[in-house]
Amino acid sequence: MVAPDKHPEMLDFLATREQESHPVLLLPWAGEFYGKYLTSAVQIYRLTNVPALKKYLSKFVEKLISLQAEDGYLGVYEKSDRLTCRVSEEKYNVIAPQNWDLWGHYFGMMGLTLWYETTGDQQALAASCKIADLLCDKFLNKPGEMGSRMDFYTNLSPGHSLCLLYRVTGQQRYLDLAKQIVDVEYAKNVDYAANALAGKEYFENEISRWEALHGIMALAELYWLTGEEQYKQAFEKIWWSIAKFERFNHGAFSSGEEARGNPYDRLTKETCCTIAWSAMCIEMLKLTGNPIVADELELSLVNAIAGYELRDGYCHYHTPMDGRRSPPGGLTCCTANAPRGFGLLSDWALMQDDNGIVLNWYGPAKYETVVKGVPITIQVLSDYPRQGLVFIKTSAKKPVEYTLKLRIPNWSKQTCEIKVDGKAIKGVKAGSYFSVTEISKGEQTIELDLDMELYFWIGQKESAGRASIYRGPVLLALKRQNPEDYIDFDDTWRPYIGAGISTFASNGSGARFVYRFLGDEITWTGAQSSQGGKAIVKIDGKPVGQVQQTNEFAPFHCHSPVWKWSKTGLGKGSHEMEVVIGAKKESSQENWISVLEIVTPKEDPLFDLNKLNPKLLPKDSDDNAIVQVQVQDVNGRKIVLSDFDSAGEKLNPYISWLKIKDFPSADFSKQNPLRSVRPATD
Prior knowledge:
This protein is α+β, with helices and mostly antiparallel strands and 682 residues long. It is 31% helix and 23% strand. Helix 14 runs antiparallel to helix 15 (291-308). 49% of the residues are buried. The mean pLDDT is 92.
């Protein structure tokens, strides 16, 4: 309810499109903001039913529709440049010649259609149809014309929203254009569906960026609308490929904004990418009814999504597995999109199938729905995901028979029974739905006690020798100190976003810092980018080398790797590390030397996963933590691990890949996509 007021440019970009020049920098994706915002906001309204939000959104939609051109155009460019997807950089003060005009209209159609479905606003439906009619008039039955636009992986996304609009209106040409996009336009660029059916992994496509997921979701919709099996098969293959290679330990998707075939990669984890993955997961859940897909949605929600969202209307752009989240900015693609992560819960928390109701989310809630014409209320009483004990109370206005399916998460291995009105029912199996059938009376109570024993993902590649520790759906992480609290910086150092990575840094020649520590080894991490500089490192007064954080391959934030430098064999006892910034490297744009953190074995404890002795700590009223678990390291020290969300609050550094002694690992499988393993038992 604050975004359009804080960021009037969300609609002002549309209102000023016919002016000679835009007064501010116009990003290629500037036309997406209103649609992403509206989609997020409508889904939040569906989840909460808050009247004030509905009133606020009604005014927003009214103003938005007033800015639509006669021909249906609802973007940010003047007449001569509409839907060309290429513009003059000088004319609009843009950073690149391409524009994502069709991409912006994809989100516009989606937001307006969802608003109509939720409220019955006929003007919103008419506005969405005018966009679709404009696209059909310009591109339908002109094969290759739409796919020839720059950045097809964004600008072919309307195929998905055209399917959604066809569901509402039955307008055949909306479906015809959606099929043309999927069957013809992609084939002239990168045919994701055909490649998947041929056995190619998603990251092996010539272009494997995150934006393409929105267009790929048209495959699932086209299967429902046409019954053509190849759409379903291709969609499922792409989903499983992403789950295997591109979904990270905290539920985020893609690295550096694209697929790389490595779930341990350390490039940036953008908020919008995770939203796209979660939206795709919902389509997969609807398509397959596989509860493991709901596990994936929950993993992303309680970790990556909760982790990127802030309490002041902003969000982090980058939410890494280890490190520090990027400071929030103004109006960005992620700011407009971020609340949708929570809003998507309205699509998967409670669902229906041919037999009745499917309950996927066990957080406290009250649901009202209708089965066989009878109003049903389902109340969930729990402290989930902190605790696994869940009480479900159902009531009906009059007796009715239906089936209630309860998701038994794949991680809940020891859930042996469910109690219905106090009577134990056995046969519960992890990774499946448990059906409570033939419910015919007005009220009943179901008790479900999920297994919250710790389990692990044993890392490989960049995470070799480390593990992620989970309790229920919650990823646990170790908080670290902020570098300014334990390193002696001179007064030239300050907070810095080094290529999307939040660090403490300086770019002044001669700037220095000193770090005093105990132990035989040390590891220093920072940001690596085209703005990186070089520095001299001394330990105990002796030069031990020159470091440089320049990466000429990484000019943009989304492609910037974490920089790492280590030194071992220093001997026991106390040491002093001094770093002095040197002269700027000729090829570097700047001279930044940055510190994400400096750690020794004391700050990076070693764990024996069979001897953690976990203990759930009481809730702290002064702490936002959902879960805090006390464990012990190999030296018997008591270490507190926090849920991933709270571990990174207030830009606090953290790690979720923890150093471990050797432990058996598990490979990815469709039965165990999180590669989870458990402690040894007697």
